[in-house]
């Protein structure tokens, strides 16, 4: 009886792992992108000579999470939405954060960026 229950629990755990794999590889949601980049807010509002290290760490994390072209298009759209919602945003500072952190995202983020390309 106990081995039957153990088998059922094991099968359930395996199903959860298999079903969770595509979710774990999906692009982060826009709220998750905003949360990830929170340490960058002081820099993009009042830029200094370079972004703080916690900001750069988060930019690198976000870049590593957006693996596919579709993921990158999604994150680009999130970044454009964020730009519109940050009061006092310094556009040049926001646009250059990735580059200043040593991350090549393949485009410069701006209100005019076409995220479908």
UniProtKB/TrEMBL annotation:
Protein family (similarity comment): Belongs to the plant LTP family.
Role according to the record: Plant non-specific lipid-transfer proteins transfer phospholipids as well as galactolipids across membranes. May play a role in wax or cutin deposition in the cell walls of expanding epidermal cells and certain secretory tissues.
Domain Bifunctional inhibitor/plant lipid transfer protein/seed storage helical span(s) in chain numbering: 30-115
Protein name: Non-specific lipid-transfer protein
SMART domains: AAI
Organism: Medicago truncatula
UniProt keyword Transport present: yes
Signal peptide region: 1-26
InterPro entries for this protein: Bifun_inhib/LTP/seed_sf, Bifunc_inhib/LTP/seed_store, Plant_nsLTP
GO molecular function terms listed in the Swiss-Prot or TrEMBL record: lipid binding
Keyword Signal listed: yes
Single biological process term from Gene Ontology: lipid transport
SUPFAM superfamilies found in the cross-reference section: Bifunctional inhibitor/lipid-transfer protein/seed storage 2S albumin (SSF47699)
Domain of life the protein comes from: Eukaryota
UniProt keywords, alphabetically: Disulfide bond, Lipid-binding, Signal, Transport
Gene (UniProt): 11435832
Pfam families hit by this protein: Tryp_alpha_amyl
